[in-house]
User: Fold this.
Amino acid sequence: MNDTTVLPRTTTQRRPRLWLRMLVMLLLVGLLAAGLIWFQQFKAGILKHVVTTIRSQLPVVATAKASMQPWQPNQSAVGSARASNGADLAAEIGGVVDLINFVSGQDVPAGAVLLRLRPNDDDAKLAQLQSSADLAAITLQRDQRQLAAHGVAQATVDSDAANLKEARAQVAAQQAVMAEKVVRAPFAGRLGVRQVDVGQYLAPGTTIVTLQQLDPMFVDFYLPQQALGEIAVGQKLEVTADAYPGRTFEGTIMALNSKVDPTSRMLQVRATVANADGKLLPGMYLGVSVATGSARPLVTIPLAAVAFNPYGSLVYVLHAENGQQVVRQQFVTTGASRGDQVSILKGITADDTVVTAGQLKLHNGSEVKIDNAVQPTDNPAPVVQDQ
Assistant:
């Protein structure tokens, strides 16, 4: 039986394994250091990407520079067109329509016959009464000759004269009845749409047609009592109508009401406007602008730049800070407006640049990106464009 003897390991046998372990540890440390370096670079790349993304998502706004422009103070109001003469024509008595002598929309002179009711026996009654008046006149003449020859008494002649007056009065009354059956134009003007037909029975007062004198045209509007010292009879004004975009009608103040409405504290004003082409019609809604005082320079910006709030009106003013475009809120005091523009009495100067679009995405101190490719309108007298 052989015994197997196990010899102890020598130092020379242990060294290779020790160096192997150290090599592995060095490799691990190197890999760890490389991983940390890669992670730092990756983190820096992520941060750079995030910053770039954030910068690319900055609010995009449009801007405009405030400017000093001449501003004409004026009083604006809403007016209503009224014909210088206008009436709804009707017959004074009832009857059946026998003749219609006009067409709808026709211009007619004063006194033109427009409608006649059926006369029935009016002519016969007039002839009967006229013959009675003629007989009374003959009787009076005969008795006057008899009186000169002392053939009749003065009382007979007086009775004959009274009978003649009565007969002539009856003739005039019949003529008046017959005249009431004829409707004439009381003044020159333009007729409206016919409301009756031939053969139709008309009760007294039934409207036949409207007649309006369109030149000149009256414009009635109201101004606050504070404007009383700024307007006067003979002052010029401008009138606009939605029906005619871009057109302005010149007018003149012709009368101021003799009292201020105690409820609204408003003063009624009437102006006259030339309307030779008949474009303005009674009842139309009109815009009225009355120039008051002389023009003066005011800071002007687009109306879209102003945010009107219950606590005050504000604009976003553009500033350059640390190479970045930053906006700051600025409260302003606004004045009158005209078209797409508004005047600024306090808060900004003519050198300031304000945000005109994109305000909803902003807050005080927001960094912004400017794109003025599309700008809101900035026209003092905009014209409605046909679609």
User: Anything to note?
Assistant: The radius of gyration is 48 Å.
